[in-house]
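hiii so um. not sure if this is the right channel but i have a protein structure encoded as tokens and i wanna go backwards to a sequence. like what aa goes where. can anyone help
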């Protein structure tokens, strides 16, 4: 069985390939997405063959744009997006209806994939932030517990000191009274 025509395929980038020269593998679309192709011998004589060259260029362009979008350079991504619009508008005019639908589906698939990647990155960042905040919260709870313990110790020490001061004041008052009584007895005697 022959492999499906290129118009029935979507690009799939090889992750191990060199970034400067992307190797594009073509994988068949699902049966629901595969357009019906009429073999050449069944085509009517007034039907013109489809020129696949613009579609191949568009798929290669999408593959290179997909690789460029994964880079961290924002300016480069912006420039590529602007170039993509200009080039894709000119390519869209040369594509057949089926090819245009396949191209739009591929663009939508790529946009959805990028959106899911951004969402996953946001979730990872938020989970990391949650862990950091939970750790900081636990540290603060420990510091608060230590501070409460120290406060309780200081309050207990202060209470003991007050009791001791009252005892010493009472002893001083008793000693003063005894001394006064002794002095009074000596004076009267």
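sure thing!! here u go:
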């Amino acid at each position: 069985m022959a492999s499906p025509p290129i118009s029935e395929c979507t690009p799939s980038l090889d992750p191990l390939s060199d970034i400067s020269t992307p190797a594009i593998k073509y994988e068949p679309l699902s049966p629901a997405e595969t357009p019906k192709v009429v073999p050449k011998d069944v085509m009517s004589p007034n039907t013109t063959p489809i020129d696949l060259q613009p579609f191949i260029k568009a798929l290669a362009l999408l593959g290179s744009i997909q690789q460029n979008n994964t880079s961290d350079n924002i300016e480069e991504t912006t420039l590529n997006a602007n170039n993509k619009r200009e080039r894709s508008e000119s390519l869209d005019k040369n594509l057949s209806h089926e090819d245009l639908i396949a191209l739009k589906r591929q663009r939508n698939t790529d946009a959805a994939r990028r959106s899911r990647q951004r969402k996953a990155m946001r979730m990872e960042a938020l989970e990391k932030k949650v862990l950091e905040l939970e750790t900081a919260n636990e540290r603060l709870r420990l510091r608060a517990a230590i501070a409460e313990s120290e406060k309780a110790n200081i309050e207990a020490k202060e209470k003991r000191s007050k009791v001791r001061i009252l005892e010493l004041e009472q002893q001083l008052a008793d000693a003063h009274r005894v001394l006064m009584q002794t002095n009074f007895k000596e004076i009267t005697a």
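oh and The helical segments are 53-69, 74-94, 97-188.
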